[in-house]
TrEMBL record, chain A:
Species, as recorded: Nocardia yunnanensis
Segments traversing the membrane: 21-42, 76-97, 106-128, 134-155, 167-188, 217-239, 260-282, 326-347
Signal peptide range: none
Protein name per its UniProtKB record: Iron ABC transporter permease
Intracellular or extracellular location(s): Cell membrane
Top-level taxon in the UniProt lineage: Bacteria
Membrane topology listed for this record: Multi-pass membrane protein
Biological-process GO terms, alphabetical: siderophore-iron import into cell
InterPro entries, A to Z: ABC_BtuC-like (IPR037294), ABC_transptr_permease_BtuC (IPR000522)
GO MF term set: transmembrane transporter activity
Keyword Thylakoid on entry: no
Record lineage: Bacteria, Bacillati, Actinomycetota, Actinomycetes, Mycobacteriales
Recorded GO CC terms: plasma membrane
TrEMBL record, chain B:
Subcellular location: Cell membrane
Domain of life: Bacteria
Gene Ontology MF annotations: transmembrane transporter activity
A GO cellular-component term linked to this record: plasma membrane
Keyword field contains Transmembrane helix: yes
The keyword Membrane is annotated on this UniProt entry: yes
Family: Belongs to the binding-protein-dependent transport system permease family. FecCD subfamily.
Membrane topology note: Multi-pass membrane protein
Organism: Nocardia yunnanensis
One GO process term, biological-process aspect: siderophore-iron import into cell
Main location: membrane
Keyword tags: Cell membrane, Membrane, Transmembrane, Transmembrane helix, Transport
Protein name per the record: Iron ABC transporter permease
Length: 355, 345
């Protein structure tokens, strides 16, 4: 047990300053910025890293500014925003539902968003660019939120302690069931589309940054912004909610409303992120768990989770475009790395349970 | 032992009732469809006036619909339903997990991945060509998911097994995506296959998968007595003389043959293998010697009914059986999760 640090006070605000987590967060931000600059440098024409930083700082020639600011920056920013959104959404849902597995992708929220987005893509015959991107975003948001409400209601009931409420593992299992059913809806949609539409939708369903531009970036960034504000505003609630429903009630927080608002913000920002690049699996699941182990905190730290989510997506995009002979979509890399990561977590959990 | 005798009589008569229901489902599947045909027309198409059954000249449209579309489709639904029902009961038995299912555990995704890969690499078109790859994929996925959930020596909890399945499915799905994104022909084959549809196959598909399904069914029935002992726990079963490794290998082979062949033929049909053993267990109790045939018959009935319903609901179009079953199966799965006290992770 470490000694409790004296809180810093400024009027009615007080905070406990912890050095180690702060240093790690700064380190993560530095890593993210480095990867972000690399992601811009890599492409059909490689731009030296120094020049990238120069242009980002406001210098460079007109041509360099055009390539970097208009074409590569939106893509790299989309990767950052989407990763941060998924990491944040994962941290909030996992904290509130007291389950390390309760992330939007495992719960079917991203598949619900996919159903909405694919419906628009197949219906309008458009790809996720220009005006269609807004329709895709709206449909994905609606699909994701509806799915979340549905799963939450279905998991509502008597818990192990005799209370009524949502049980973490019941929610996860119901989420997996709903996810399987929604996946079959997606394949049904694909089977009814023309081959061209199906190919577009499949590209999106794999999770790809290729179509990323300002029109996909803006809704996702807005979603992330709102979710960040809501989370920052309810930081105390979130910290309290990690202790469980009973403790929170004693602490006097109006739990149901606060919980609902936080969950809606998390789900909404995950759905908008999904609308931008397609469903990226495991980022929302893994980022908070990595953050928790890195910072050694009892709950899932929100800011660090968002940073790690962003690092994961930008890193996966870099890997996808450089390591393989053909440029792979980013979603293939996150799933190919994330699937085994979840299996590894399970093996470890099983080992622990038997020891 | 009068109680045993009545139980046996009840189970036998139950089997008889199911057989009759199956006949009704088969008849309905042949008679009903997106194109409405009168019963007399259907009868005429099957048994020509004055001729032998199924020997009529293939000139009239109604006759063609019945003989060339609906008959093979009904046969395929019957066989794959039988196979998936039995495979579901086996998986639930071997994992002692009420939520196990070939679809949820990633076995279908494994079959899909290698089948799609082989279609893309070797330009395969017929199931006979890619069925071996589908088997290999199903086997590989089965080994991985059971291996992962068994690592650490403890018996896997329902949640960890389902999660391992979800993780494996996502991984294999990503691999499949790589293939179909590079190759539009493979995408076109894949998107119709992945819905899970018993329509659109001719009778040769039926002949191709039949040997595998028969072998799987025989293995399943051989495994049944051992499964009864396994349900008492590994230690007890071992004490009673069960060779655990051999028993599991037979079970895995049966599951891969049954689920792999059915999936290769008609595509992944989720939830069927999950629902059916629960229905069967409610009728027979836990004895696998009865549970397996019951699950097979119920699987065939459910798939036939789902397929026929899909044809009637969306007239003049159709809903594929895989989709109809997911719509039925998901609520069932949720009921199951809500009702049972499941072991937590």
């Amino acid at each position: 047990m470490r000694a409790v640090r004296p809180p810093l006070r400024a009027g009615r605000f007080s905070a406990v300053l912890r050095i180690r987590p702060l240093l790690i967060v700064i380190g993560l931000a530095a890593v993210l910025f480095g990867l972000f600059a690399l992601d811009i440098a890599v492409g059909e024409v490689r731009i030296p890293l120094g020049r990238v930083l120069d242009v980002l700082g406001g210098g460079g020639t007109r041509a360099q500014r055009f390539v970097i600011m208009d074409s590569r920056l939106p893509r790299a920013l989309t990767a950052v925003v989407v990763g941060a959104a998924l990491g944040l959404a994962g941290a909030v849902t996992q904290s509130i539902l007291h389950n390390p597995l309760a992330s939007p992708d495992l719960l079917g929220v991203t598949t619900g968003a996919s159903v909405g987005a694919v419906a628009v893509m197949v219906g309008t015959g458009g790809v996720a660019t220009g005006a269609a991107a807004l329709g895709v975003s709206a449909a994905a948001l609606a699909g994701g939120l509806l799915t979340a409400v549905l799963i939450y209601l279905l998991a509502w009931g008597r818990t192990a302690t005799g209370d009524t409420g949502v049980m973490g593992f019941r929610l996860v299992l119901i989420g997996i069931g709903v996810n399987a059913a929604l996946l079959s809806v997606v394949s049904w949609q694909l089977s009814r589309a023309t081959l061209t539409d199906a190919a577009h939708a499949q590209q999106w369903l794999t999770g790809s940054l290729n179509a990323a531009d300002r029109s996909t970036l803006i809704p996702a960034a807005a979603g992330l912004g709102v979710a960040l504000l809501v989370t920052a505003g309810s930081a105390r609630t979130l910290a309290a909610l990690r202790f469980g429903a009973d403790t929170t009630r004693v602490l006097g927080v109006r739990i149901q409303t606060q919980q609902a608002i936080l969950l809606a913000a998390a789900v909404g920002c995950a759905a908008l992120a999904t609308a931008a690049v397609g469903p990226l699996s495991f980022v929302g699941l893994a980022a908070p768990q990595i953050a928790r182990r890195l910072l050694r905190t009892p709950g899932e730290p929100v800011v660090a989770s968002a940073l790690i989510g962003a690092i994961a997506v930008v890193g996966a995009d870099l890997l996808a475009r450089t390591v393989f002979p053909v440029a792979l979509p980013v979603g293939v890399v996150t799933a190919a790395v994330g699937g085994p990561f979840l299996l590894y977590l399970l093996v470890r959990a099983n080992r622990k349970a038997t020891l | 032992m009068p109680a045993v005798v009545t139980t046996r009589r009840r189970r036998l008569s139950g089997l008889l009732v199911l057989a009759v229901l199956l006949l009704c489902a088969v008849a309905a599947s042949i008679a009903l469809g997106s194109r409405a045909l009168s019963l007399a027309t259907v009868y005429d198409a099957l048994v020509c006036p004055g001729g032998l059954p199924l020997s009529c000249p293939a000139t009239d449209t109604a006759g063609q619909i019945v003989r060339e579309l609906r008959l093979p489709r009904t046969g395929l639904a019957l066989l794959t339903g039988l196979a998936l029902g039995m495979a579901g009961a086996l998986i639930q038995g071997y994992t002692r997990n009420p939520l196990a299912d070939a679809g949820l555990l990633g076995i279908n995704a494994g079959a899909a991945f290698l089948a799609t890969l082989s279609i893309s690499l070797f330009a395969f078109t017929a199931p006979t060509q890619y069925i071996w790859f589908a088997f290999a994929g199903a086997l590989l996925a089965g080994l991985i998911v059971f291996g992962v959930s068994a690592l650490g020596g403890g018996k896997a909890s329902p949640l960890s097994l389902v999660l391992a399945g979800a993780a494996l499915t996502a991984f294999l799905q990503a691999m499949t995506n790589i293939v179909v994104l590079q190759d539009n022909t493979a995408l076109d084959a894949y998107r119709f296959w992945v819905v899970g549809d018993v329509a659109g196959h001719d009778s040769s598909t039926l002949g191709q998968i039949l040997p595998f399904l028969l072998a799987g069914a025989v293995l399943a029935l051989i495994a049944a007595p051992g499964l009864n002992l396994l349900s008492l726990g590994d230690d007890v079963a071992q004490g009673l003389g069960v060779n655990l490794t051999r028993s599991r290998l037979i079970g895995l082979a049966a599951v891969v043959l049954l689920a792999g062949a059915a999936t290769a033929a008609v595509g992944p049909i989720a939830f069927l293998g999950l629902i059916v053993p629960h229905l069967a267990r409610a009728l027979t109790g836990p004895d696998y010697r009865w549970l397996l045939p019951y699950s097979g018959l119920l699987g065939a009935i459910v798939l036939l009914v789902a397929d026929t319903a899909g044809r009637l609901i969306a007239r003049p179009g159709e809903l594929q059986a895989g989709f109809t079953l997911a719509a039925l199966g998901a609520p069932f799965f949720i009921l199951l999760v809500r009702r049972r006290k499941l072991v937590t992770l």
